[in-house]
Each structure stands twice: as C-alpha cells, then as structure tokens.
Design goal:
The longest helix is centred in the middle third of the chain and has 33 residues. With 639 residues, this protein is α+β, with helices and mostly antiparallel strands. The relative contact order is 0.04. It folds into four domains: 64 residues, no CATH class; 127 residues; 122 residues; 153 residues, no CATH class. The protein is built from 23 helices and 15 strands.
Length: 639
C-alpha cells in the first residue's frame, strides 16, 4: 500500500500538531481539490506518483481521526521515516533510533500496511543486486509491523531464493539426463554459475525466517557436488569447488551433518589430488634430495669403517650441501628436507665418535641447522648442538688443565754434558734389560705367568685430551660421553620423585613393615602382589631401622638392593641412583599379607612384620642372608 502523508500533501508547515488548526486544514484542502479539478488529467503529482481526487479525499479524511492525525504528524516530522515510506530511501536505516511510539500497538497497526511493502522491496532489491552493506543495514532494524505482516517483509527475497533452488535442481536434472553443457566442459566454471545465483555470504546474513530455504539450497548444492564427484564423472576439482559453496552456507540440523560429511570426503580426495600433482611436478627435486641422503649415509658408513678422513667429509659437505637450494624447494619436499637435516646430524655424530674431530663435527651439524625443518627436527638439531658445545667446552678445559700442568714442571738446563749423561744412562738401561731377558729365558721352564702388567701410560697431553672424556660406544646418532655420577648422602625414608612409581597410603590403617639393615645399606621396593606395581620405595642406612607405615590392605612382595655408597647420575632424580660398591639385588619371595583379620568376638587384628636385612663379609664377596633369589639390576629398576 502506497503511503501518502496528508500534511505533506497539503504542504503544511508546523512545529507541532497544536500549530495546525481545523481552519488551516480546511483551507488547504479546498485549495488542493480545486487544483486537481483544474489539472489536465484530474490528478496531482506526489513524490513522482499521480494521485487522483478520490485518493486525496481518502487520505485527508484520516485527519478527522485523532490517532491517525497524530501518527501522520509524527511521520511528517520524522522525514527519514516519511521518505522511506513514500519512496523507499534507506536514510531511515542509517539514522534509525528507537522511538517510544514504536512500542505503541496502535501505531504499529497503523504503519504496518505501509512499512511492510517498502521493507520487502528494499531488502529484495539489495539482495538481488548483492549489496552487502545495504542488506546488513536493512536487517539491523526490526520491521515496524505486526506479526501478521512479518512474513510479507521477506516474501520477495524468499521467493527469489526458491527460484534459485529450482535453477540448481534443474542443473542437476540436466546432468542426470546427460543434457548439461557443463559435461562437455568437464564442469569447468560451474562453481561460478552457482555463486552467481547465490552468495553464501549474503544468504548467511538473512534472519532465522530463511533457515528452511537456506538448508534447502545447501543440500541442493551438496547433491550437485556429489553427482560431479561420483561415477561416471569422478571430477574431483569442480566437485570440491561446488561442495565448498554448500559448506559455506550456514545450515543446521541433519542438513549440516550431511553437507559437512560430503564436503569432508570430497576435500580429502581433492587434497590427495593436489599432493599428487605437486609430487609429480617436483619429483625430480625430491629424487635429488633422496640421492643426497644416500650419499650422506655412504659417507657416514665410510667414516665408521675409518676409510675417509674428517677433512674429506668437511670438504664434501661444503661442496655438495646447497642450503639455499634446499630451502627453496616446494612444500612437497618439506619432509625429505627434514631427512637431509637428520642425515647430516648422523654424519656429524660419526665424525666425532670415530674420528675425534669436534670442530668438523660442529661444522657438519651447523649445515643441518640452517635448513628449514619442522619443530620436531629442529628440537633434535638444537639438542645435538648443545651436546657438541658441551663436549668442546670440556675438551678445552682439559687441554687448558694439561697445559697448566706441563708449565709447572721445572725447566731443565740445556748442556752438551747433560745430553751425554742421558745417552750413557740409556745405554746402561738397554744393557741391563738385555741381561735380564737372557736370565728370564734361561729359567723359562720354571716360570709361571700369573703376574699382571704394571705399566702405566704417561699423563694425558694436549693431543690426547679426548681420553679423559671416556667415550663409550653407543648409537650411531648419539654423541658419546660417559655420564658423571655423584655420591649422595641418604637418610632413612621414602625415595620420592620416581616416574612409574605411585606411592599408596591408607591413613585409616596402622599396618607397618619394620626394616632393620646391618652391615649394608638397602633400598627396598614394596610391590602389590596382584597388580605387580611398586607402591613404596624406601632407603634404610646400615645399622638403622625404618618402618613403612599405612600400607593399604592386600598382599605384597619385596625387591631389595644391597650395597654401599649411593650415587646418582648428573641430572637424574635420587630415585634413579645406584650403589657404587658391593651392590647386589634380590627378590624376596615371601608374601606379606596386610589384610585385616576379623574375629567372631568382634576383634580386628591389624598385621605388621619385622624384617632384618644383613650381609656377612667374606674374602670374596658379600653373602646375602635374607630370603630371596638374585635378580639383575635392570629387573630391580623395572617398576
């Protein structure tokens, strides 16, 4: 219904309704009707619309009703609302403010027939033209209509979307009937056509009233993608692009589940296709990397066999490892670049462990650290760099100490006479050794070779510093160095902070196992018989007693370590320590039953045990007088 404002029609100017009297309205009414009668067509122009005399009279008669007179005057004063109702301008939405009259049912009933068609028109026009800003602006204002007019505010936009859904299904039918022009084009450009019909971004802006048609369109687009993806076409790329449109639409319920699942399946196939294409495109680069890895491994194996020198390896690495080229490889080569870095790290380890060349080992590793690798590989390289830096620092400290020791020896005077004396002494020693050998050979029939060689090598010099680091054979990818153990003074009680051991207590029961140690220190583990898990780990010093208390009900057995001088490797918790001397390990096969005993007279017996652990010293070893069988150290440490 076209809105006509009577005050604007009469061309009345007034600040308030009280300024407009009946006499003024009557005069302007006669003037307007006379003007219409004199016009050529018997009409008058109102905002570009020709209005007849009858329409003018109908509008002007509304001024006789109090409510309508006031409502028309409010609209007359609110120019942005008046212009929207009369010509559909959007300034009303730009400057919209919530007026108290908008909550008045009588006003809403009055304005609904005029507001609804304008709102429907501007929303539909903006949506069809794809004007996102106008759509957002319009939807930001709740329509000034009654419930019965709400649907009418959206009807044109809704019908437009229904037509879009029909067009999409028509495309599907044409494909099924093998009549679609897109079949010959392998469906190139089909996603562009779908997007030209419906924009996910715009349709998602629409209110809940449109959820049904939103779901319907999303499902139709999903079905189109499915048909392109399946037999007989199996065209993954266009299917993925169409499916992405459906997935962008904010559907709900079962539709959302169906659309999301279909999108996920097609996306997986599409990503596999892209990866395959990328691998094919960059396959020569990847093959080159694998050849490089093979070459690095060959160099490492040659080092392990002492067939090549460290300097040869260093020159080869500098000549053949092009960091810039490797880092510029495409994403498809990312994993193989990680393998190159790890291979270089392995080569660095071999240089150090087999050729004792710390500087060249660091140089090789430095190449690996320059490569663009993932976080896990980077962490491995950083850890290796820390190990090498610590080893080099230790070698430098040893060399400095040896150098200082050498400079502390008193200087000998240089003289020719002294040289002659030394030569004479050497000749005499050779003569005596010769005679001694002859004497030994002459009595060889009675010689019994049970002696030990008492020869001691000279102190380490600067050139033999590595011997003080005591490298032990380990994995090819581990820089070898002997762990440092420190003695720890232990007190009686729980040994805590042990991974794999969860101490268990029952504060409501007074169970206890009293342990006394004699002629040895002991470390005792208490195991649950059913779960075979250690629940307590305690230390008892030689000549002392300790009680393990509040043991939960159940049956238990013990593993016991005997010895002296508890020591712990640097960086490890106390619980991972060991006995440095006289160590042995036993498994006590006795069962310690800590279940309560209930008697018929109501008494309850809480069990406790006493255990004496001691060793008797002989000329060969310590003899264990406790019950149990010998076990290995690894068996004892197995929680």
């Amino acid at each position: 219904m076209q809105y006509i404002n009577p005050y604007q029609l009469l061309n009345i100017s007034a600040e308030s309704l009280s300024d407009v009297d009946v006499k003024t309205i009557s005069r302007e009414r006669r003037r307007l009707l006379h003007q219409i009668e004199l016009s050529e067509h018997g009409t008058i122009d109102y905002n570009g619309i020709e209005i007849t005399r009858a329409e003018c009279i109908r509008v002007l008669d509304e001024l006789d009703e109090k409510n309508k007179r006031e409502f028309h005057f409010f609209i007359f004063q609110n120019s942005s609302l008046n212009n929207f109702l009369t010509s559909g301008t959007l300034y009303f939405f730009d400057k919209h403010t919530a007026e108290s009259i908008y909550k008045l049912p009588a006003f809403i009933n009055f304005i609904s027939p005029y507001f609804e068609p304008r709102y429907d028109e501007v929303l539909s026009t903006s949506f069809k033209s794809g004007n996102k800003e106008n759509i957002k602006k319009i939807l930001s204002v709740q329509p000034l209509t009654t419930t019965s007019f709400n649907e009418s505010c959206y009807k044109s936009t809704y019908h437009f979307l229904k037509d879009v859904d029909k067009e999409i299904n028509q495309i599907i039918d044409e494909i099924k009937d093998e009549e679609s022009p897109y079949i010959q084009k392998s469906f190139r450009g089909i996603e562009t056509e779908i997007k030209s019909k419906v924009s996910p971004e715009l349709i998602n802006l629409l209110p809940a009233y449109f959820q049904g048609i939103r779901n319907q369109i999303a499902m139709s687009i999903r079905n189109l993608a499915r048909d392109i993806n399946n037999d007989p076409y199996n065209l993954i790329e266009p299917a993925f692009k169409v499916s992405s449109i459906a997935n962008e639409i904010e559907s709900d319920g079962l539709t959302k589940q169906t659309v999301s699942k279909g999108y996920s399946i097609i996306k997986g196939r599409y990503e596999d296709l892209l990866q395959q294409k990328e691998n094919e495109k960059y396959e020569p680069h990847i093959d080159k990397c694998y050849s490089l890895i093979d070459a690095i491994v060959d160099k490492r194996d040659a080092i392990n066999k002492k067939e090549i020198s460290a300097s040869h390896v260093n020159n080869w690495v500098n000549s053949n490892i092009n960091i810039t080229e490797l880092n510029n490889l495409p994403s498809a080569a990312f994993q193989v670049r990680n393998l190159v870095a790890l291979s270089l790290k392995s080569l660095s380890v071999a240089v150090w462990n087999n050729l004792d060349e710390i500087d060249i080992a660091i140089s090789v590793l430095a190449k690996a650290t320059l490569l663009r690798v993932n976080e896990d590989t980077k962490a491995v390289l950083v850890e290796a760099k820390i190990q090498l830096d610590e080893l080099k620092a230790k070698i430098q400290r040893q060399r400095l100490a040896n150098l200082q020791q050498t400079t502390n020896y008193p200087k000998k005077e240089k003289s020719s006479f002294g040289v002659l004396i030394v030569i004479g002494i050497i000749i005499l020693i050779i003569y005596l050794i010769s005679n001694s050998n002859n004497s030994h050979n002459s009595s060889s029939s009675s010689y019994n070779d049970n002696s030990t060689n008492s020869y001691s090598p000279p102190p380490a010099t600067v050139d033999t510093a590595k011997s003080d680091i005591a490298i032990a054979p380990q994995s090819i990818d581990t820089y070898q160095t002997e762990p440092v153990y420190n003695k720890v003074t232990m007190v009686n009680g729980n040994i805590s902070d042990c991974s794999g051991i969860s101490p268990k207590y029952d504060k409501n029961i007074s169970t206890k196992l009293i342990i006394t140690a004699q002629l040895t220190d002991v470390a005792v583990k208490l195991y649950d018989y059913e779960t075979d898990r250690c629940i307590r780990y305690v230390f008892v010093n030689d000549g002392s007693t300790y009680a393990i208390k509040n043991i939960p009900e159940g049956k238990y057995y013990l593993k016991i370590a005997y010895g002296n001088d508890w020591e712990v490797k640097e960086g490890d918790p106390v619980c991972k320590g060991r006995f440095a001397t006289h160590s042995s390990f036993k498994k006590d096969l006795s069962v310690y039953d800590f279940n309560k005993t209930y008697y018929n007279d109501g008494r309850v017996s809480v069990p406790y045990y006493t255990l004496k652990l001691y060793r008797t010293y002989t000329t060969n070893t310590y003899d264990d007088n406790s019950a149990g069988n010998s076990i290995s150290e690894s068996d004892f440490n197995n929680n």
